[in-house]
Amino acid sequence: MPEQELFQEGLSAFRSGNRKHAIAILTRLVQEHPRSERGWFLLGMCMDTADKREYCFQRVLDINPNNADAKKQIAFLSTPQPVSPTQPFSQPSQNTPAFISEEKAPQTKTSAKKTASKKKTNNNIILIAALSGLCILVCVGVLGFRMLTNRPGTSAVLPATNPNSATSNVTPNTQPDIANTLPPATPLPTALPTVAYTPAFEEAPCQFEIPFGVQVTCGYAIVPENRSIASGRTLRLAVAVYHSTSSNPAPDPVLFLQGGPGGQAVQLSANAYSILVEPFISTRDYVTFDQRGTGLSEPVMNCDELDKVHRQDIYGTLAVESRELVYQNAFLSCSGLLQAQGSDLSAYSTVESAADLRDIVKLLGYQQVNLYGASYGTRLALVTMRNHPEIIRSAVLDSVVPVEANMIEEYPKSVNAALSQLFIACASDPACGSAYPDLEAVFRSLLQKLDARPITLTTSAYPMGTVTETVDGAYLLSVITGLLRSPDFILTAPQTIYRVENGDYSTLIAAQYSLPYEFDGISPGLYISMMCREHVLDSTPEELKSVSEQTGIKEKVFRPFYGDFADMFPACKNWGSTGPNLGENDAVVSDIPSLVIEGSFDPATPPFLGKQVAETLTHSYYFEFPTMGHVPTADDLCARQTMLAFIANPGIEPSRECLNGIQPVKFLVPFTGQPPLNLERQSLSGVTLDVPRDWSLTDDGFFLRESSAFDITQVTAFRSDVSPQELVDYFSSGIHGYRGLDGPPNAAGTRQANGYLWMMYYTTSNGRPVDIAVADDGGESLVIVLFSHPDEHDALYRSLLLPMIDSAR
């Protein structure tokens, strides 16, 4: 961007009182035009402390030793002045220095603003990942803003503060109010010149199954690890290009950016071809790549020691009292090993990934691309829009992670926004409100009870082994917010809360099955490096500690970190990370056509973050899908249709017609017997009886209701060649663990039907009711077994089990 345009925009922001935006624009100006005399001067006028102002004015004198205004400002700063009331920033009392002349050309007004409150979220616990089909992770990304030198051999670093000089305690009458401009520890732009380099593309066989009839080109983009070091290490970034099936494809492909950070994009695109790839290639190419440090790119920043400790933890082999110490040792071991292998941890940032993206686009011969970012991928898209706008035709931002958002500090607000949406939606649904009254109060009370008296839950997760987890408030919160990420599970959230309150842990047990796969597809080393740089070290230990206090739970650990929120700060220091540079986390201002998509129930990137980003994207369209969670385009046809329409014509707002047909979430409530089950007569394993017509029949003879992924309700009937007593003895054998039951069947009465005397038994499996009915039929046994949830047991007993008994022959 021309120096004049940047300066005019910065000057306009300065005069309007928008100091934060002025600093962001002027920082970009001195990055792109390091010898801009007036740029450095105006940046100095915006700074909040004397040493920062003095540094900027000294840079002015380095460029022009005769600049009288800069000399006056430095002399003024070196002379102690009495403190006086500050003037409103919107009304600066000093005149513009003579050498800063305002152009008469029209000025561009922007509404860019970096929100005053810190941002946070990103629940990185993916407890239901294995249950949810396509899972695009929502963790957080990191943004490293590299600054250029202003003159050869000079580094733009902030000088050490002289304790003997008068600095921040001096507020001259002529200075505007510049308090609290930036965190004091944030440095000014550091000069990291990009050395000359030539990226290359090396074609290679695809490491995934190519869909029939589709042409795919795979290979590696070879780029520097650190673009400021000559002859440094190079990286090989895995790239996949799905060529369009059209005879006349559009020249600008879709370029997909995966979440995480640290998520795999190349393999995900192959696995989810029908959702991610196929909709686009009828009109244009589809391109994706694995970001540096992850997936099929080389080298990958894996942490085998952390993976080992995580598996020891979930399999119950770590002592509770030493758990965090073991995690800490593995965490530090990973950092040391990566650095010993030659990894420059400071080179793994969103800014570098954006530069990688630019190089890939040029290597593939495209002029422009349509970015499609999901979750953290939206942050990478935004940084690319800021740093390399010339290569972008349009951008789809699904579940937005704003550049200016501190996702750790934003965590309580994000979680509460999603929970509030849940509580309001349930109360608005007559069936849900009636079945689960006072849902919020029950949930908050349950969190406190689990924190005071955690329960230990053990599940046999064949073939991995027994998974053991301590269920406290943090664990339950993670499960519930995990449910809100997917429309398949949102409808189960109120039911899960009430069932856990009443001792039914079905959802928690299902979640345990996914724990061994919690970080599959994620590069822990990359995730930690980027998380530390942009979020943890952009905060303070005190601010991080306050995050825990705001959650309303006793303890919250973000794996693969150790300890609580406050422990994350020293962990990142020990990892070897540094915080973001000045301006690195400022809001992105752009007029590139953008489609912002959010799901109303999303706890990771809630709608308020998408709305926040849309405010500074002057040519953006905001779409919120009322029944969706995280990444609506992965689950919702309407969202995908909206995206396709936008990419086809980014200059026109897509139709909202399909949004009007979306019905509210219909939450699951306990079956009460009404409406009655629809039964039909069938022969099943030697028994003829009435069975549920709408339930699914498995190969082994079980009818499954399948109201959700967590529904264990099922029934079966069969004829056995053993006597009823032998059958009861079989299930009563403690040697074999009661054949999966919690204990031996207990006699629960008898029932006469169709000439049979049915013996009724009751037991439980994982605390859930199991009813067994057995009748003698000439030395053989007729058997009916019903598995149900406690809150539906009585209704299913009356409406299903007894009719099956009465109809059996």
Write the layout of secondary structure elements.
Blueprint: H1 3-16, H2 19-32, H3 37-46, H4 50-63, H5 68-78, E1 200-203, E2 216-224, E3 234-242, E4 254-257, H6 266-271, H7 273-281, E5 286-289, H8 304-314, H9 323-340, H10 350-363, E6 369-374, H11 376-387, E7 392-398, H12 411-428, H13 430-435, H14 439-452, E8 455-461, E9 465-471, H15 473-483, H16 487-490, H17 493-501, H18 506-514, H19 524-534, H20 541-551, H21 568-575, E10 594-599, H22 607-614, E11 620-625, H23 637-648, H24 657-660, E12 679-684, E13 687-692, E14 696-697, E15 702-704, E16 714-720, H25 724-731, E17 746-753, E18 756-765, E19 768-777, E20 780-787, H26 793-807
Parallel strand pairs: 4-5, 4-6, 6-7, 7-10, 10-11
Antiparallel strand pairs: 1-2, 2-3, 3-5, 8-9, 12-13, 14-15, 15-16, 16-20, 17-18, 18-19, 19-20
Helix pairs in contact: 1-2, 1-3, 2-3, 3-4, 4-5, 8-9, 10-11, 12-20, 14-15, 14-17, 19-21
Q: Your description of this structure?
A:
It contains 26 helices and 20 strands. Helices cover 35% and strands 16% of the residues. Helix 4 packs antiparallel against helix 5 (68-78) and helix 19 (524-534) packs across helix 21. It is an alpha+beta fold. The longest helix has 18 residues, at 323-340. Strand 10 (594-599), helix 22 and strand 11 form a beta-alpha-beta unit. Strands 1-2-3-5-4-6-7-10-11 form a 9-stranded mixed beta sheet, sandwiched between helices. The chain has a 7-stranded antiparallel beta sheet with strand order 14-15-16-20-19-18-17, with helices on one face. A two-stranded antiparallel ribbon has the order 8-9.
